[in-house]
Amino acid sequence: MLADILGNFDLRLRGFEDFRKFVGETPELKRCIVRCDLNIPSSIRDLSRVYAIKSTVEAILDLGLGVVLISHYKRPKPEDRSDQKFSLSIVRDSVSEVLGRKVQFVEGSVFEVDPSVIDSEVVLLENLRFYDGETQNDDNFARILASYGDVYVNEAFSVSHRAHASVCAITKYIPSFAGISLQNEVRWLSKLLQEVDRPYTAIIGGSKVSTKIDVLRRVSQIADNLVITGAMANTFLAARGFDMQSSVIEKELLADATEIMKLSKAKILLPLDFMVSADIETTGTTCKLGAIPQGNACFDIGNETVKFIQDVISQSKTLLWNGAIGAFEFANFRGGTDAIAQSVAELTKSGKIASIIGGGETVASLGCYKDDMSFVSTAGGAFLEFVAGFDLPGLLTLQAR
Question: Looking at CB atoms within 10 Å, which of 105, 109, 127, 145 has the fewest?
Fold first, then answer.
């Protein structure tokens, strides 16, 4: 596992300084392929993943190379490949806006377009998931992608946990390096697996224990405090014998929750009170743990829980936060999220804590406080796997040899 061999892992990547040196020594280079993540939610105009690649794209252009952007977009089925709602042409204007440059969208299959006729400064190829070879990590497909450039930069940390052709196989056929944003992700997240400043507190929330079981196991062994919130807290409290009424519980994971609590080296902290309701669209009422009214479910933490979480993080030097604290999408159940986010932002701005935030849902819940955090990851699954100590295929292919 990555955690066992990490060391200064980001220093062993073939990084962007190596890229600059390579370009300087190889004047015949014309185009650079940049694997990015333009899977921008259509319902939320969050362009953070585009802003993340801006520095790298500008640096490549300053070195005199053209840029070929490649990305996936959503999860189209074979029958969806002619449906424009799955085409990356949808995000072209947003990418142009952020980069401040015209971006040419290359229509047609990557198997049919002649790479030699591409002469625009920045071009965008079609959705990689329109091709079976992408998710199969197919060598032939990777070879075709590699023909669009002379050198490759991975700026998609968020998909580097996937052994896909545009992340892994392509590096067999073209000189490959890590981008500025990817290196920054690895550098910040490595802090959580190396000599972290303590006390180290982790807030892990969200709806399901099942999606974060490995992270919970790992973090419970290395953090000083593990605060479990969101709907997943219901499963841990049920494992302790509390009646959570109509709250969501993963009964098949009660034994796992019990085991994590038993073996944890971190102090595990669970909610003491909640905002509950029989209907998520109805204004909630506060009640203590063990006194949830029949037919009600927990949708947010209560004031007592907010206060003890604030007390814990105020005494911490490092904070990992992944997963929603409550049903923040509903105004009546985002009080806990706002209160914790404000506290973390104030502690971060005052230099008292290093706050590392990850996961799309978590980032969306921060609202106006997002810019006050020490580091906000663009990744979800890759963030979780890295923090859990798993090897990420996309990073292993970029290790300095």
Answer: 109
